[in-house]
């Protein structure tokens, strides 16, 4: 593939990639139910239950690619910014912010502290992904201009150079604070441009069969789980292996994306669900509700057998996902007349 794809982004989004969007969101929920809700197994936990600890490391390796996959998906298609689409994103964030505030108020019997700053994402940890993605959205015209017009060699040099820089200063030595292990706009820009490069030029590493892509992803999971198990068994720090800037995590995300890109699927139900998948993140990662999500998971982990915990956690994640999708469909109905009002306002300002 030597030319930029001219098809509109919506027509490019076949159900295979929309299915990946759903899978990635479920993996986000899993990763939050693992090492956000639960402690990372250390020397004692591994000695007491080595198989259970290793399973946790496998689950983390499987799911930690999710955020990178989401950003790669945006780059694969390319963000084509419009006022109405940008407004809908903000509306969706606010809609679920208000819902989660209401839930927290009902549970606590009072309005949570700092509700306004939390609702408008003014704190450092408030929906970090949303803020990084909004910034990526705003910069997308500039990024698209580079991705669509720079030569293959220019893009390869930029991506390779930044990858080396990020791997050194944003992962291995953590020599900067602003890369934040991949929880940052610069890392999103790299992933976005990497996906645009792969989709436009189809370099050699993207041209394996889909089964080789899947095998590489499985190998990544196994390797990362073994590395973490051995490090924690030895009482050493290993959290940086789960950074979004970790080269292994990036490789895992890339090959999971490539595997799905080579599937052939058209399914209206998949597309219908995927259109609202982001709502699940907004529901269980809100500063108003994430603690309830984590505490429920932690209580089951500490109080139930491992098999019962897995069944409960799986059912709970599925339930939160389904409820979030249905709530977002209500949000979409409310939103339906608003784009016309926005377009009228924009047209008036242009006169």
What does this structure look like?
- This protein is mainly alpha-helical and 351 residues long.
- The protein has one domain (9-350).
- Helix content is 74%, strand content 0%.
- It is built from 17 helices and no strands.
- The radius of gyration is 21 Å and the shape is globular.
- Mean pLDDT is 93; it is low at 1-10.
List the helices and strands and how they pair.
Elements: H1 9-12, H2 15-36, H3 43-48, H4 50-63, H5 66-77, H6 83-108, H7 115-119, H8 128-149, H9 152-172, H10 185-201, H11 210-233, H12 247-261, H13 268-274, H14 278-284, H15 290-303, H16 306-335, H17 338-350
Helix pairs in contact: 2-4, 2-5, 2-12, 2-13, 2-14, 2-15, 2-16, 4-11, 5-10, 5-12, 8-10, 9-10, 11-12, 14-16, 15-16
Structural class: mainly alpha
Instruction: Report the total helices.
Output: 17
Element string (H = helix, E = strand): HHHHHHHHHHHHHHHHH
Q: How many strand segments?
A: 0
Instruction: State the domain count.
Output: 1
- Please estimate the helix content: over 70%
């Amino acid at each position: 593939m030597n030319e930029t794809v001219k098809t509109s982004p919506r027509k490019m989004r076949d159900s295979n990639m929309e299915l990946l969007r759903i899978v990635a969101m479920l993996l986000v929920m899993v990763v939050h139910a693992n090492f956000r809700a639960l402690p990372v197994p250390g020397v004692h936990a591994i000695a007491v239950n080595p198989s259970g600890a290793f399973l946790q490391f496998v689950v983390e390796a499987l799911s930690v690619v999710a955020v990178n996959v989401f950003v790669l998906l945006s780059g694969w298609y390319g963000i084509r910014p419009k006022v109405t689409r940008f407004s809908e994103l903000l509306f969706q964030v606010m809609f679920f912010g208000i819902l989660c505030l209401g839930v927290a108020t009902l549970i606590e019997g009072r309005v949570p502290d700092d509700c306004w700053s939390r609702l408008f994402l003014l704190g450092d940890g408030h929906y970090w992904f949303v803020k990084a993605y909004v910034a990526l959205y705003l910069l997308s015209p500039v990024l698209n201009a580079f991705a669509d017009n720079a030569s293959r060699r220019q893009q390869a040099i930029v991506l390779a150079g930044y990858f080396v820089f990020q791997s050194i200063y944003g992962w291995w030595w953590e020599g900067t604070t602003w890369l934040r292990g991949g929880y940052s706009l610069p890392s999103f820009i790299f992933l976005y441009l990497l996906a645009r490069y792969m989709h436009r030029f189809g370099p050699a590493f993207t041209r394996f069969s889909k089964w080789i892509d899947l095998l590489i992803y499985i190998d990544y999971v196994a390797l990362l789980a073994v590395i973490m198990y051995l490090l924690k068994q030895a009482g050493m720090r290993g959290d940086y292996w789960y950074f979004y800037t970790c080269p292994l995590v990036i490789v895992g995300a890339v090959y999971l994306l490539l595997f799905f890109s080579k599937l052939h699927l058209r399914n209206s139900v998949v597309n219908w669900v995927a259109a609202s998948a982001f709502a699940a993140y907004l529901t269980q990662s809100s500063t108003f509700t994430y603690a309830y999500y984590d505490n429920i998971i932690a209580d089951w982990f500490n109080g139930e057998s491992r098999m019962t915990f897995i069944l409960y956690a799986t059912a709970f994640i599925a339930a939160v996902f389904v409820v979030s999708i249905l709530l977002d469909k209500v949000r979409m109905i409310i939103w339906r007349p608003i784009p016309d009002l926005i377009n009228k306002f924009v047209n008036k300002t242009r006169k």
